[in-house]
Design goal:
The chain has a single domain, classed as Four Helix Bundle (Hemerythrin (Met), subunit A) (Up-down Bundle), CATH 1.20.120. α1 packs antiparallel against α5 (91-111), α3 runs parallel beside α5 and α3 (43-61) runs antiparallel to α6. The two termini are 20 Å apart. The chain is 57% helix and 6% strand. The chain is mostly helical. It has seven helices and two strands; from the N terminus they run αααααββαα. A two-stranded antiparallel ribbon has the order 1-2.
């Protein structure tokens, strides 16, 4: 059941990111970069942070034997030095990588076994402190982190006059073909 929920979240994640990047594309370059007082300052800074978080977590998840192969692409990338790292300075390139990561996340979740979700994963945070936690809980965090920061990004878009539209999961539950 939990694995099916993660599969749903992965599809929802991709759909919301597609919409987020389309809405962000309505802004001028200057508006994308404008410091709006948000934690990651701008729309572009927030989108980069979401990707930084994904890369950091997916690299950690690649340490699990059941995920190493599915996450090989992200394992070969350099680890972002900070949570504020700007990985891509232009929306088009950032969007290309976002689409690639979203496909990777879907494929990774599809390849996971239900038994793997019961495992613990040991990882180091950005400061090097080591934790051991349940794999399923950490995967939940990956998706919730994105939801949280996409909410910030949609607020920044709204402040810029761009209506993002509906963000509810119920849309996918009603129409699984999305």
């Amino acid at each position: 059941m939990l694995l099916e929920q993660f599969k749903l979240f992965a599809v929802y994640n991709r759909l919301m990111n597609e919409r987020l990047y389309a809405a962000s594309g309505e802004l001028s370059d200057a508006a994308l970069r404008r410091d709006r007082g948000a934690f990651f300052k701008s729309v572009l800074g927030t989108l980069n942070h979401i990707m930084v978080g994904d890369i950091v977590w997916l690299q950690r998840f690649a340490g699990h034997p059941g995920s190493a192969q599915a996450l090989a692409y992200v394992s070969g990338q350099p680890r972002p030095a900070e949570l504020t790292t700007i990985l891509f300075d232009d929306l088009a390139r950032l969007g290309e990588e976002r689409a690639r990561l979203d496909r990777l996340i879907i494929d990774w979740i599809d390849a996971l076994s239900a038994a793997a979700l019961e495992d613990d994963l040991t990882y180091a945070n950005m400061s090097g402190k080591v934790y051991t936690q349940r794999y399923a809980g950490l995967i939940s965090h990956l998706f919730l982190h994105q939801v949280h920061h996409r909410g910030q990004a949609t607020t920044l878009l709204s402040q810029s006059g761009v209506d993002f539209g509906d963000t509810d999961l119920i849309e996918i539950l009603r129409d699984p073909s999305i």
